[in-house]
Design goal:
This protein is 54% helix and 7% strand. By secondary structure, it is mainly α. It has 2 domains: 133 residues, no CATH class; 196 residues, no CATH class. The longest helix is centred in the N-terminal third of the chain and has 25 residues. 20% of the residues are buried.
Length: 365
Amino acid sequence: MTALTIATESYEQHHQISSNPTVHIEQSTLEYLHTAFLLYKCKQTHSKREYRVLLSEYSWDKGNAEEKRSLKIAEHFQAFVNRPEDLAVLPVPVLLRLCSRNYKVLIHELQGYRQFSCTEVLELIEERRAFLKSQSKDKKEGNWRATPDGNRYYTFGKIMEDDQQTGVLTEKLIEQTGLSPQRIVRMAIADLYEKQQTEITQDEIDDFVAATTGEVDVVEDADWEYLQEPEELDIGCEEDGYVEVTNQTSLSDTQTDAEILADILRSAWDYEEVRRGLYQYQSVKEEAWHLLSNSERQSVCQLLPEPIKKLSHAKQERLIVNFYELESGGMYAVFTADCHLIERIVSIHSLDQFLDDLRAKLKFD
């Protein structure tokens, strides 16, 4: 038996306490939460002067920094004010990290859990950290940008020309072929690349193909159902926080909203442009969709991130009623059939498990 073991046993015997350190840290977190919620209640129900008098009566001598830290935790975790014991598994530093700007969105997700462990929360934090890291790739990789699900795409800067040749010819090709601007650029670059190569190996061809977006032969109903007007509900669109979209092409004053939205969808370079356009012209989504050719629909559907496609399929399966993406990105508010007025906050990383649970429940029912 080592000296360390002897010392530990002597300590717990002397103080007559449990030898399990986990018990004590969870008890200390629970006590800290009681402190935080009590301070917050006092501050909310008393004037500033009365609040200071109360602190003096309670002999609060822990300093302003500790007071602010407690109030911060209480403010962000108000949803747990009636069940602080659920948060006891999280050390205070973890609670504070969840209060930060980058991670507070996870608090909404935790509200949907009946019970969770510290390990699960730390995994959510790590997943969120990886997501935020992927979002900042553009600062390190030039023209590469990251999507919320971790994929990446290439962007081109503004093409400034005296004769506006690129824009003029692109519009003509769109009218003549029905192809999207993205598809035209892809084909043009591929053609130029092949002409520049006098001798190219199969490995180089494979690398080139892997770096570009693959063709889509069929547009499935579930993939573009998200673009149409929802049949059941139109919930929460104002909560997305998207800014109003101004059309970037020269639009005639005589164009209808559906025609304007169709033009936005044709010229969209990424999913963000699609999403902003749909938000501004929600009432004509289905009409605008029917104005697009099959190839244009394929191009738009290729821009939809994988979580949107999964949720659209789930809606078609009647697993869910409606959904929308939160402003912070990577999180979705989902309305289920059994509780269509209350949203469930689901992250990209927990989406598959969430849908599997709904399918299992539907099968059981």
